[in-house]
Amino acid sequence: MSTITASLGTDRVRWLRPTLTVLVAAAVAVGAPFYFAPFQVFQLTMVLVYAVALSGLNLLTGFGGQISLGHGAFFAAGAYTAAVMLDRYDTSHLATLPAAAAGCFLLGLGFGVPALRLRGLYLALVTLSFAVFLPPLLKRLEPVTGGSMGLTVNKMQPPAWSGLAEDQWMYFVVLAVTAVALLLARNLLRSRVGRALLAVRDNESAAEVMGVRLSLHKTLAFAWSAMFAGVAGCLYTWVIGFVSPDSFSFVLSITLLAGLVVGGLGSLYGPLLGAAFVMYVPSVSQDVSEAAPGVVFGLLIITVMFVAPTGLAGLPGRVLGAVARRPPRTTAALDRMPEAESAPDAEPESQALSGPSETHTPADPAVVDAEPVGAPPRTEKE
Amino acid sequence: MSAVTDLLQQVVEGLGSGAVYASLALALVLIHRFTGIVNFAQGELAMLSTYVAWQLVASGMPYWLALPATLAVSFAGGMLLERIVIRPVQGAPELTVVIVTVGLFIFVNALAGLIWSFTVKDFPQPFPDGGLDVSGVRMDWSTLGIIGVVAVVMGLLYLLFQHTSIGLVMRAVACNPASARLSGIRVGWVLMLGWGLAATVGAVSGVLVAPVLFLEPNMMGGVLIYAFAAATLGGFDSPVGAVVGGLFVGVAETLTGAYVDVIGADLKVGVPLVIILAVLLVRPQGLFGRAAVERA
Amino acid sequence: MSEPTTGSTEAAAGAERDFLKVSDLYAGYGQARVLQGLDFSVARGEVCAILGPNGAGKTTTLRALCGMVRGRGSVTLNGTELLGRSPEQAARLGVAHVPEGRGTFNDLTVEENLRIGAHLRTGPRRRGRTERAAVVADLERIYDYFPKLRQRSRQAAGSLSGGEQQMLAVGRALMLRPSLLLLDEPSLGLAPLVTRELFEIVRAVNEEERTTVVVVEQNAQLALDIAHRAHVLEAGRLVLSGPAGQIREDGQVAEVYLGVSVLSRKAG
């Protein structure tokens, strides 16, 4: 059915809908600060800040298939870069942005080189250790970072010509940076780096055979990803005007990953939805108990992984897909055999080359287990 | 006190904390061998077990009765967890499985806070005060006790794996689950056993460390990082490596804290990060791991 | 599973002729259907070879028999339905599968591998002393068949050569005292001499223990040497069935019919 509409649709129809969507979204985004109260505008601003960090994490995890449990640390690094520049060197706010971005990019390269030569798992270990180590380090570097007390810096002030309140001006500045960041993320995915990443995620060994330089691309993706987190941290300093080591404990890192998973891994809108979760779930459920946000996030993550690995952003697609697939599924019992000539390709003798997870998808878990799918990779020996 | 005595003193204390890291690392390695999963929730599960022990003792049960009860509960809990939370994602991409264990981490941590609050609790010390004095080096009974308990756990695991038929079956499953199934082994049960065993070993680490660190939901967060460093150093597939790695990490941490002024007590937590990075750069498969293993 | 010899095959009952009965078997992976309705029977004590070009569905057939892939239709072993069972259940019913690429436990010693093979007989519920003695006797029996394994009994399986690993895999399967032995491409990656030795042992096992064997092979010549009957599979269907000798005779027919050289190694 979709092919029919697609063939009927003219070019105009094809670009009209996305353009309209973008226009409506832009109108809503621009109108929001005039409609909501200052505190709500502040919350929306923070959603955008987190969205930048999550879109970075999404590059790495959603598209690259690697896990970072330390993006809170890069967030902190960006925030402190901005705060220290503002506090000690009295630079302009805008000057701190490229510094935070470049600093975190380099930091990402530094950690990515050893961690990404191997399986993604080690990246998670390294980044987690880094996230745990950073707060005490920030406390120790007191002469620069203000130690446990943190640093209080000037927030960005609206210029007189704008006629905006502080919260509204902040909102627009962050909105602009977020828009640029999201566009950049999208373009990165369309670049050679992005295509290589997708190839790596979908089938690492095949990608390697095709000559994709795995470790280079994974490391670059991690560096880009760290850069986004750093930019988000920089925005955080602009908006909050205060940084302290305890704001960036490793819980932040885990919360970022949780938000992304719930919002939707590998989707362009996932980071926005996830950022709303990171912002609102704690503030709503904190009223119940200090532990409530964790309970909610923990359960949500596991549930999402069980039922909808594409997260909230993927839900509409999944629902539509399920509806579309239903008719053939109910009748496609074994009677409806494909013709014989299509069969030989499926013979398992040829499966050694392709990834096992794609080729075996029987519904019965017992049968899945029977295949070497779940087998730890270490059992093979030359 | 001479410099040498002082050094030995630090080493003894390092071995004490290293033994705790070793037991949690052992739990991590057990699960990794069986399922190829790195269980990020291992520390939190140990913390939860420790709360169970605390609750039993608080409700009047004698310590030495509460301990086996806790271990039994942990074993059953680990088995259930495998069946309910891990089995559904077994065979899914590694990313999915890791995220599930991270979700479990968050959930268990918050659950403990919800039930027992985030205030710090005193946990009973099973070992007597005082200790031995060996030519100026003081060895507390508690330190010796921790090392002794971990040694016993190691020994029991060795006996289980090398000298019982269930241990042989478990090793077979860890090595090649598909072939194990073809030999009529109920792989699902064995995986549950493996998780139960890991949860029990982890519980030992939690109960051992609780009197020192005081019991609170975030108690095991730091220990987990050291255990990861230990497992990375020893090799994620090697139980022996986990123990050697744990002791090494413990001693390295104590010595660095004591002798490197720049580091001091507050920055010791950087030690596991440095160890992990160094191992990955120099010998990524770890001291006792196999070279072919870790690349994928 | 003791099995006294009951005279000639001709005199055996229908149940003996249809010891393994495959009817209308369809199987595949996900959307891809590989087997397109197979029908064949294997008599008790018979060696049956399944031949055919790469991708014809030979491996899938074996996997359907032992529960590694799901199938539709019917597969009965001595009257018991095998389809819909897991591999461990199939093993309990006496089906021993030696998968392609050996599938030994490389971290375990040779002897441990063999003991795992007898797992079902020594498991917690059947720890009879007699059974354990029988397992020890079986160990000796396997070592008699494969003297090289006896020499290496304390070595890790991973350190064996390819041929030795294949022998170990077969030995482990025999420790189950199977009523049906499934061999998937046993010659894969082995030197010709080693392969010949292995096939001779399989023939000996079949003759001495009356174990029913289904062997999948690309090397048709070798398989036909030990098989009683053979089936040629093409694109998921049987295109040729009959006594091994006849299939060998019909090799040229098959060549014409299939457009591939089923018996290309005949000259060798």
Our Rg estimate of chain B from Cα atoms comes to 19 Å
User: Strand order of the main beta sheet of chain A, please?
Assistant: 1-2
Inertia-based shape of chain A:
globular
Number of strands of chain B: 2
The overall number of domains of chain A is 1
Low-confidence stretches of chain A: 1-9, 325-382
What is the C-alpha radius of gyration of chain A, as a whole number of Å? 23 Å
Q: What's the CATH class label of chain A?
A: Mainly Alpha
Assembly form of the protein:
heterotrimer
Contiguous low-pLDDT stretches of chain B (5 residues minimum) are 292-296
List SSEs of chain A in N-to-C order.
HHHHHHHEHHHHEHHHHHH
> Which overall shape of chain B is indicated by the principal axes computed on the Cα atoms?
globular
Strand order, sheet with most strands of chain B = 1-2
Specify the CATH architecture of chain B: Orthogonal Bundle
Largest sheet of chain B: 2 strands, antiparallel
Greatest interface and its participating residue counts: A-B, 66 and 69 residues
Named CATH topology of chain B: ABC transporter involved in vitamin B12 uptake, BtuC
Average pLDDT figure of chain A: 73
Helix content class of chain A: over 70%
Helical/strand content category of chain B: mainly alpha
